[in-house]
Write a sequence for this structure.
């Protein structure tokens, strides 16, 4: 059980590291307001719903695009 929790924490840590690597910390802070949406399939951050729709049509054409209200 403890191991399971550690694994979870390690996963979160790795995810944060990956996010920092992707954007850089200062850049991430500056853009954090504009990048609150994420692709529900691959978690790519997007500035707004329009970008999500375009991204999904291009990258995940077989996935249903969730409504804007679900973000
Ligand atoms: Zn995606």
């Amino acid at each position: 059980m403890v191991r399971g929790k550690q694994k979870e924490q390690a996963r979160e840590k790795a995810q944060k590291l990956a996010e920092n690597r992707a954007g850089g910390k200062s850049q991430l802070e500056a853009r954090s307001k504009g990048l609150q949406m994420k692709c529900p399939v691959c978690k790519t951050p997007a500035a707004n719903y329009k970008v999500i729709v375009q991204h999904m049509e291009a990258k995940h054409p077989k996935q249903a695009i969730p409504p804007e209200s679900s973000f």
Q: What stands out?
A: The helical segments are 2-23, 25-31, 49-59.
